[in-house]
Design goal:
Radius of gyration: 32 Å
Order of helices and strands: EHEHEHEHEHEEEHHEEEEEEHHE
Number of strands: 15
Distance between the termini: 102 Å
CATH architecture of the largest domain: 4-Layer Sandwich
Largest sheet: 5 strands, parallel
CATH superfamily of the largest domain: PPM-type phosphatase domain
Strand order of the largest sheet: 2-1-3-4-5
Number of domains: 2
CATH class of the largest domain: Alpha Beta
Number of helices: 9
Shape: elongated
């Protein structure tokens, strides 16, 4: 007569470490022997307290848990396990009598993955164990993938931080400060500031559409194009407006022509500051209007002079000029400031931001600290809705 033996060779991939919890020694012995014959590593516990001690001391792939036990019942152990973040992923199969329908329902409602009726049927035991271990292997595979993805994002975060200036340019009589708070590990917002061949300082604040990895990749591209083109265009341009316009248009045309199918664009404020005179030539490519703050609050908003970068080739961008007087501050920001959400989904709003700007700050750093503190108080326990980038330039003397 042909039959299948439990001692036949098994695939190591289908075996696991199993904890058998039962106050009945005969049940523990019977289950342990059958599981070991199937190739599993088996540990036993005679009560609920001992089971929790075992779970805390080593990793398990599956728990077979009796209900009626001293110390702690199976219900209590199950509830503790499923509420513990370190243990809740372990499948738990409850050992029940075939007639205990109410107990089965209660166990499933507490988070049990399955039940094993007594007396033990070898075929049902194999099926329950195989199903639960398959679930555990799937969970472990998902966790490994999530960790590898998290590590990749951490690497991306570190690389992206390298695209932000390590130090900001300095000039006598000027204070330049920036603040960056990404909503995720990688971001689409960025700021930049760097000296130009004519002795001026380029200021950039931009927001690439979307969030996450896609926005972060294009952030690197936009930032690199603006820097690279500025170095060449300003060296060749007859005037600052010419160099500024060529830099912005060159960036726009490259993105639109080379990456048009990606439908990615960026709003950007790109300016050139002359530290000697306070003159500020700028292009506002569809960006939130920066504010110039004086002793009486906001005296000017620098409205858009053209569309967002990358929408289509050969767009026209106007160049305008302002001048910062002694004591005035240029404040630029991305829409993550006004769009910040509180736990009730209420936005921070432009009105609240303008109220903060109308109270003069003694320094650029103080202004950014004040706004960041207000944002933190508004967001409280809510998840950050969008990236936040701010740039403040103050003429002190």
């Amino acid at each position: 007569m042909n039959h299948v033996s439990l001692s036949e060779p098994v695939d190591p991939e289908s075996t696991g470490t199993i904890l058998v919890v039962d106050d009945n020694e005969m049940n523990r012995d019977l289950l342990s022997r059958r599981l070991r014959r199937a190739g599993h590593r088996v540990m036993v516990a005679e009560n609920g307290r001992a089971a929790l001690d075992q779970l805390a001391s080593m990793p398990f792939d599956l728990v077979l848990l009796d209900i009626m036990m001293p110390e702690l019942t199976g219900y209590e152990v199950l509830e503790i396990v499923k509420k513990d973040p370190a243990l809740c992923h372990i499948p738990v199969v409850m050992i029940t009598a075939a007639t205990e329908e109410e107990s089965i329902v209660r166990c499933l409602s507490l988070g049990a993955d399955d039940h094993l009726p007594k007396p033990f049927n070898p075929a049902i035991l194999r099926a329950r164990v195989a199903s639960s271990l398959a679930k555990k292997r799937l969970h472990d595979s998902e966790q490994r993938y999530a960790k590898s993805l998290e590590r990749e994002l951490e690497i991306g975060h570190e690389i992206q931080l390298g695209f932000l200036p390590e130090t900001l340019p300095t000039a006598d009589g000027w204070e330049l400060r920036a603040h960056f708070r990404p909503a995720r590990q990688v971001a689409g917002d960025f700021y930049d500031a760097f000296p130009l061949p004519n002795g001026s300082v380029a200021l950039v604040l931009a927001d690439v559409c979307g969030k996450g990895v896609g926005a972060a990749l294009f952030m690197a591209l936009f930032r690199s194009l603006l820097r690279a083109l500025a170095e060449t265009e300003f060296a060749a341009a007859a005037t600052v407006p010419d160099g500024l316009c060529a830099t912005v248009q060159g960036t726009n045309d490259y993105i639109a022509r080379t990456h048009g199918r990606a439908n990615m664009f960026a709003t950007a404020f790109v300016a050139v500051l002359d530290p000697a005179t306070g003159a500020l030539d700028y292009v506002n490519a569809g960006h939130e209007p920066p504010a110039i703050i004086g002793s009486n609050g906001v005296r000017a908003r620098l409205e858009p002079t053209g569309p967002a970068l990358g929408l289509m080739p050969e767009l026209v961008f106007g160049v305008k000029r302002e001048r910062l007087a002694i004591g005035e501050t240029l404040f630029a920001y991305t829409d993550g400031v006004v769009d910040a959400r509180d736990p009730g989904d209420g936005s921070f709003g432009e009105e609240r931001l303008m109220a903060l700007l109308h109270t003069e700050a003694p320094a650029a750093a103080s202004l950014l600290e004040r706004i960041d503190a207000a944002l933190t108080a508004h967001i409280t326990t809510a998840a950050q809705f969008d990236d936040v980038a701010m740039l403040a330039t103050r003429r002190t003397a």
